[in-house]
Amino acid sequence: MNERLRTAMLRHGVALEDLAEACGVEAKTVERWVNTGRVPHRRHRWAAAKLLTADETYLWPDVLKQSSTRKVEANRSELLEIYPDRASVPRELWLRLLSEAQERIDVLVFSGTFYAQTQPKVARMLAEAVERGVTVRLCFGDPTSQAVEIRDREERLGRTLAAKIRSSLTYYRELTDLDGCEVRLHGTTLYASLFRYDDEILVNPHAYGEPASANPTFHFRRLDGGTLADHYMASFDRVWAEAVPWSGTEI
Fold it and tell me: What residues contact residue 220 under an 8 Å CB cut-off, 6+ apart?
C-alpha cells in the first residue's frame, strides 16, 4: 500500500473519485495506486501532486530510483534563487522566513551583526516563534576562539571581530531563558553562514579575504530526492554538536 498517498488524500479530504477526476482516470485506477503501490504515468503524478499540494517524489519515492536524471533535477529544483552578495537578499525575504517558520529556525554565523540590523525586533520575533512552537537554535562564534582570530586576520578586520560578536550577543540575552530556544558558541572554521527556516535555508558561503556580506547567497528549499538543502542542514548539526551553550551572562 502507498501510505504516503493514502495519508495525503485523507488529510486533504480527497476521495478516490476526486483524485480520479483530477487525473482523468477511473476510480479503480486510483485504487490500484493506493492499494498496490503502482506508480502512475508522469502526467497523472503531476495532477495528483498538484491536487494534494505535495511533491510527486514524496508521494512516489520510487520515481527517483528509476532515473539518475530525476535526482539531478531534484537538486536543481531545490535552488530557488542566487544573490550576488548577501546585501542583495531582500529584507522582505528575511522577515517572511522568520515570521512564517513553524517548526525550526537555525542560525550559524560568527557575529551575525547584520541579522539584527535587518530585523531590528529580531529578539521579539524569535520569542514569538518559540511561543508558536518553533525550536530556535542560534550559533555564534566564540570570541575567544582561534577560529575567530584567524578570520579576523584573513579579512583584515583589525582585531574587531571578537568585539562584534560580543556586541551581537547582547541582542539575544533575553532568549536564553526561553524553553525552545538555545544559544551556543562555536570555535569551528566557518565555511558558510547558514540560516534555516523549516525546509528553506539561506547559504552564504565565504571566500578567502572577503567579508561575508560581499559573498553570494543561495536560497534552497528542501525537496524529497534532493540533497543540497540536507547537505547544509547536516553541516549545521555537526557544528552545533561541538558548540558550547551560552547562558547569556558571560561575553
Answer: 78, 79, 80, 200, 201, 202, 203, 228, 229, 232
CA gyration radius, the chain? 22
The angle at the Cα of 205, spanning 139 to 134, to the nearest 5 degrees, equals 35
Q: Is 106 helix (H, G, I), strand (E, B) or coil?
A: strand
Sheet holding 181-186, edge to edge: 79-83, 217-221, 200-205, 192-197, 104-108, 135-141, 181-186, 244-245
Question: What is the reported pTM?
Answer: 0.72
Instruction: Render the burial of 139-166: b for 16+ CB within 10 Å, e for the rest.
Output: bbbbbebeebeebbeebebeeebbebbe
pLDDT class of 61 with cuts at 50, 70, 90: confident
Beta strands in the chain (DSSP E): 79-83, 104-108, 135-141, 181-186, 192-197, 200-205, 217-221, 244-245
pLDDT tens column, 154-185: 999 999 999 999 999 999 999 999 999 999 99
User: Over the stretch 185-223, which tens digit does the pLDDT of each residue have?
Assistant: 999 999 999 999 999 999 999 999 898 899 999 999 988
User: Measured between alpha carbons, how far is 174 from 126 in angstroms, rounded to an integer?
Assistant: 11
Amino acid letter, 44 = H
